[in-house]
Each structure stands twice: as C-alpha cells, then as structure tokens.
Task: inverse folding
C-alpha cells in the first residue's frame, strides 16, 4: 500500500471510496464487539474452574496451622501463597502482602495512607503538602490516572520511548519536591506493551528526587503475562532501589485478576521491609486480616511457581492467536499507508494503535458506528486528553479470533476513513 | 455474700484469704484461656463448612446473568445476596453495597473518602476542617476508636445508659461544628450488650448538629446475633433519619464475620440513595468491583433470610450456654459483694464487667497471672484510657463451656483480690 499522504488526489478519492465500501459492508453486519477492557475470555477464565470447589471439605488449615475460616493469622497473608508469587513480584515472601482481590485497591490504599499519614522518610501527610504531583508515563492506564486525579494529585505526562519512560525528562521533573510519585507499568505496559530497559529501571531507582519520600508506584500487572515463548525478564526494582541507597522508593503491585479470576483472585503488594511494616501498620486500622480462605484456595489450585507458569502458558495459547490476528489485519489494511503505527507486544493485554494526528476520536466514533467499541480516545492520557488525539487502545482478549479480526478490520477501516477525510480536506485547502 | 465494703476488717481478712486460696488453686492448674476477642468457636465456624466447596462445578452465574468469575457486574454486589441481608441492614437491596470480607474496612473507607473528598451536604474534605471530632459512646469498640484516632480525629467519650448513649450529652456535644460523626454499635453493643431505645434512635436521627454533614457510623455488627429466643428489634435508623429531614445522616455497616466465616465472609454498607451513590463513586477509583464469587457462595449457602435466621439460631444454641455459665459464675462469686456489676446481654459477643473503681488493670493483671487473658483494661475507652479504671470486657465465645466457667471464675477471683487489696488498704489508713 502506497503512503496515503503523498497519494495523488484522484487516487486518494478512489481509495477512500473502496474503504467506504468495505466499512459499509462491515457496518451492515450489525456487529456488537467490545474491545474496551483487558477482560479475560470465558475460555481463559474456565482454566481456573477448579477454584469453584476449592479448598474442599475439611480443607481449611494453612501450612502454619492457621484456621483460614476464622479471624487472625499473618497480616501478610498465607506464606504458602506468598511463596508462589515471590518470583513474579521479585521479593521474598516476608516482603509480600497478599490482601483482597485487586491490586488497584492496594494502590488506592497505599496512596490514601500516604495522603493522610505520610510514608517512611517523609515529613508527614502528603495532603498537608498539597498540591502534589505524580509523573504519568503516557499513554498509560486510565485507572491509575483517575485514582490520583480523584484525590487532587496533579498529573504530569511523560513520554514513553518503547523501552520505558524518557528518563531524562523524568529526572528533570522529579527534581521538583512537589512530585511525590510516579505511575509505572514496567512490563508489557498498558497499553504500549513495552518493557522498561534495565538501564531505565536503574536510573529510576538511583535518580535524585526533590521529595525525599518520592515513590514509584510499580504496577507489575503483566509480570507473567507473556504472549510469546520467551518469558521476558524485568530488572528487579526493589533490588535496584536498595542497591542505590533508596530502599523504600518502590511500591510493587500485582494480582491474579488475569491469571485466575477477574475480581475474585488475589491482590498483592511487595516492598522494602520498612514499607511493608508501614503498610501493615496503616492497614491494621482497616482490616483484621485478609481473606485467607481465598488464598488457600489459590495455593491448592496453583500449588507452586511452576503451576503458575503452567497456567499462564495456557492463557498464552488462547491469547496469542488473537494478538496475531490483530497484527495480520492491521498490517494488511494500514501497513505502508503512513497514517498509523501500532505495537506488536510480547506480552500483556493491549495493542496500542497510533492513528494520524487529530483522528483518534473520529476513528473511535466511526468504529462505534460499525458496532465495535474500543477504549474511548484520550482515555490513556492524564485527564483523558491525548494532546495529539492519536492513541487508540485495542483490547483483543475477550472476543474470539474471528471477532477480533472483524473488530481490528473495523478499527483499521475507521482509521483510514478518518485519515482520508483529513487528507482530502487538506488537499482541498491546498488546491484553493 | 455480704457487701465487702461494709464487712468488718477481721472478716474481710479471712474472706480475702479464702479467695487467695481459690485463686492459687486455679493458678496451679496452669490454664491458658483467651477471652480477649469476639472470636467464634470452631464449632460455630463449622456450621458454614458447606462454603468450602461452594459454589461448586459449573456454578458461577448470578441471577442477573453476570459471570461471577470475571470483571464487572453491579458495583453494589449481587442482588440475590443483598436481598438476604436487606432485613438485617434495614434497607432495600438498591441501598446496599456488599464488598470485601469486613465491615471495618468499609467504615475505614467511608472515613477516608470523607477525610479526603467530603460527603454529600458538606463543604469539602473533612481533613481541610481539622481538627474534627467523633463522639464515642463508651465503653465501646476499640477498633472504632483506633481507626479514627489513627487519622487524627479527636475522640470524645459519651456515657452509655443501658439503652444507648446519654442523648442529652450527645445533643450538647453535637452542636459543635467540629463534631463530624459518632460511633454507634446500636444493638447488643460491644461490650455493654445494650440496645439503643427507639426514642434514642429517633433523637439521634432528628437532633440538630453543628456540622451539616454530621454522620452516624452505625455499626450494626450484631443485628441478628441473638442470645435468647427473642429476636429483639432495633429501630430503623435510615427510616428515622429520612423521616426527620436528615436522610443522609446514617451510614449503616454489617458483616457475616460472626455468621459464616471470620475474615472470609462479607462486608456490608447501607445508606440513603445519595450516600450510596457517593460511596460507589469514590469506590470506583479503588475497585473494579467486589468479589462476586464469594457473594454467590454465600447466596447458595444461606439461600434466603430464613436461612440466615436458621444459621444464627444454630450459633445461639452454641453461644447461649457459655453466656449462661458466665452469669452463674459471676453471680456466685461477685453477687452481693458490692464491688462489681456486669451485664447479662440478650445478644452480641460480650459481657461487660465493671469492677471496683481503680481495680480493672489490677484485675486483668491477676487474671493473666492465672493464665486467663481478657481484653486489656482501658481498651474499651477512647485512647485506651478508662477514667475510672473499672471496665473489663469478657468475650466468652471461643473456649468451651467448662473453660468459660474457669475463666469467669479466674476473673471474678482476680476482681475480688484486687478489691480486697484496696479495701484493706483503705481500712489500714482509716485505722491509723
């Protein structure tokens, strides 16, 4: 496909017409496809259906003798469950807290503890130092941005490079004492799929920050969510922080929401001994202890780290063909057009599509008219505003492969319609 | 038993000696009994063991078609589960939120939402109006007090009357605009066992408050936790607030921690439509949704409100003999001595024992030396300080009936030792 930006106007008109025909034909199929969220498919979810009957009759005793049906026990959660996830989180079991069904809840709680009572190494409640700010590598995860925005934290976008954030920019911005934290999805990022390079992790761990109590909110949501046979590694941020004299800088989060059940799995937090003690102290006001029975259920089901990897391999077998289909369709329709670039992630849940500047909103609107919902344009940026109106997040996990193909086709055709609209307008202006 | 306070000194010496002998004999049994916490016994917990294998193979679909294994669904939790608890909470299902395994977590979250973002009818974040205060009917629940204290809220004790707090005092104190809330355990109170009288509920609902956004934190922890055949009723606070023009005043909390499993049950919140919308709006930053599978598990197990009552009847059959044994022992040993009064609750988890002024700490210490742990003296008051050093909370649910009898005996003998110590000192001073 020749570059649309340099295509002669008559050809461009003809090309647009052919795209319109395909778009109209697709629209007439009255599809209803939802690719807005990183939601595991029914087939993936069913991989964990043994959980529906676990732990089973008479099985309620943890390895340390704790009765999981009653109050009390370790506030960190069951040791045998923490052991399974120690590798994924990059922390020894004693530096892990498993609690609740969601990592975003633990991020929320860490943030509110910091706002209301401060963190180790700080001068008191962050809310007393308002206005404070968080760095936001963008495009990123809308729930991160909404969480901080909801509590009046200023969001400062930072560009991504394909191997993590622009660290020069991060270092410059973090020199401001008002900058208290930074959102990071360091592996198979949402939505760009990139993995923070070892050098990037090292610089984030070692950089000088204006705030002595600066925190990396390290959401390792996709730590074991590989899409290829290579289990890519991420540099260990807790070790890097400790090595560089900032042992309490990183708060690591994870969950099994996309490993076992979404919303009925396990939320996890890992950090330095001081941060874990801080977190559990604050948490002791909020909770008598985590749901130990769900942790036992997961320990019985996964058994060990090898069991965790066997399960994520099974997820990969279901997910990889959907991601391949997206690549095929986008390549066929958008390749060489010069009006779109997109990621081919080695893990995670998203394809990040950059369409022609100023056409993301229009593309999403056209796709919606054809019965295909993707994440609303702008949503992947702080305050919901994509300054270039170009990023679209595609979440191909839930529909089946054929539907994913149709949806990708619809999005690609919509992107081409939106681009040719603009290009033809520009030509008209030039011709006048 | 004659009143120790007027006993001739020789008799008092002899009496003390006999108490000492019994105490020493008990101590020599090297008991290790823990009555510190309202922890259900193993026998009670086992009543819900069907949960260990529920919902069971192939069962994951809620009444409204939601797949409980995946993200999304009603943020309020499953309708069929809310229906079971509507009577207990005194609210229609649409005004109920079920989330997590703990009511204290929901109280914590409501408080932090209020501190950081304000509540309906308020002028903004409570933290911006610091210092703020909460009224604390005392003796009360230590976790309530610790929660507010942890966030810098001033704790103001209010006396209890046997049918709820001294409302004259509450009205006087609540006129202060800095008073933003009040902790209430309105039914079978922790630890006094009292039930707020209808007139008390009405006055709390209708009183004028200095703060327009004053909130009753209404922890109905023992709503269905009867110890007699009479299912005592509590006036409906949400209806009373609505009737008296303060529809958003009450935040109602409850849980199944002492109905199904402690720490693996369900936490609940009920309030006005405006407060529920407020709570869910704030919560949408924290959570993608509650653990629906645990709600389905509970719905399958309890089936309906009648099932809930059948289960709580079974708890009563186990608990009531333990509470009766405490009454027998305390009556035998302390009745008529004039140095102790105690409650005989019709529900809940505690017996509240008032020993002679200035002897609670000493009593608890002596009991501990005899291998019997009760809640540390003072713990039932704000800041852990009982101004009269007289209240002791006894939690007889966990040990068996014989052990409960021994524990109550140990506490009573300790109270008598502590009292006679003081009385004999006083006589010595008088005699000099």
Result:
């Amino acid at each position: 496909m020749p570059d649309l930006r340099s295509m002669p106007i008559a050809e461009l008109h003809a090309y647009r017409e052919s795209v319109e025909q395909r778009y109209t034909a697709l629209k007439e199929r009255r599809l209803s496809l939802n690719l807005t969220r990183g939601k595991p498919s029914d087939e993936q979810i069913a991989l964990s259906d043994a959980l529906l009957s676990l732990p089973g009759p008479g099985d309620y005793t943890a390895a340390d003798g704790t009765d999981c049906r009653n109050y009390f026990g370790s506030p960190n959660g069951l040791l045998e469950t923490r052991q399974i996830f120690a590798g994924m989180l990059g922390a020894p079991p004693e530096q892990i807290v498993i609690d609740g069904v969601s990592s975003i809840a633990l991020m929320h709680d860490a943030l509110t503890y910091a706002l209301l009572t401060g963190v180790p190494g700080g001068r008191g409640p962050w809310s007393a130092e308002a206005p404070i700010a968080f760095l936001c590598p963008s495009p990123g995860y809308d729930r991160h941005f909404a969480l901080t925005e909801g509590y009046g934290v200023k969001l400062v976008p930072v560009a991504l490079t394909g191997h993590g954030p622009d660290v020069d920019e991060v270092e410059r911005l973090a020199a401001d004492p008002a900058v208290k934290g930074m959102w990071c999805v360091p592996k198979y990022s949402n939505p760009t799929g990139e993995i923070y390079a070892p050098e990037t992790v090292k610089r984030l761990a070692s950089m000088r920050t204006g705030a002595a109590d600066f925190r990396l909110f390290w959401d390792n949501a996709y730590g074991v969510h590989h899409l290829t046979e290579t289990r890519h590694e991420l540099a260990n941020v807790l070790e890097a922080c400790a090595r560089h004299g900032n042992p309490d800088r990183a708060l690591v989060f994870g969950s099994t929401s996309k490993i076992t059940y979404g919303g009925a799995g396990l939320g996890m937090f890992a950090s330095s001994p001081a941060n874990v003690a801080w977190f559990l102290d604050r948490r002791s006001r909020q909770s008598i202890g985590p749901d130990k029975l769900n942790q036992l259920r997961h320990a019985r089901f996964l058994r060990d780290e090898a069991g965790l990897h066997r399960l994520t391999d099974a997820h990969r077998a279901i997910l990889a063909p959907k991601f391949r289909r997206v690549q095929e369709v986008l390549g066929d329709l958008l390749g060489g057009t010069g009006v779109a670039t997109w990621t081919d992630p080695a893990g995670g849940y998203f394809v990040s599509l950059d369409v022609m500047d100023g056409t993301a909103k229009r593309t999403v609107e056209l796709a919606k008219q054809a019965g295909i919902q993707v994440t609303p344009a702008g949503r992947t940026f702080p305050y919901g505003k994509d300054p270039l109106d170009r990023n679209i997040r595609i979440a191909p996990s839930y529909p089946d492969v054929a539907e994913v193909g149709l949806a990708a086709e619809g999005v690609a055709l919509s992107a081409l319609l939106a681009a040719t609209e603009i290009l033809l307008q520009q030509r008209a202006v030039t011709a006048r």
Observations:
- The longest strand of chain A covers residues 133-138.
- Chain A has a mean pLDDT of 97.
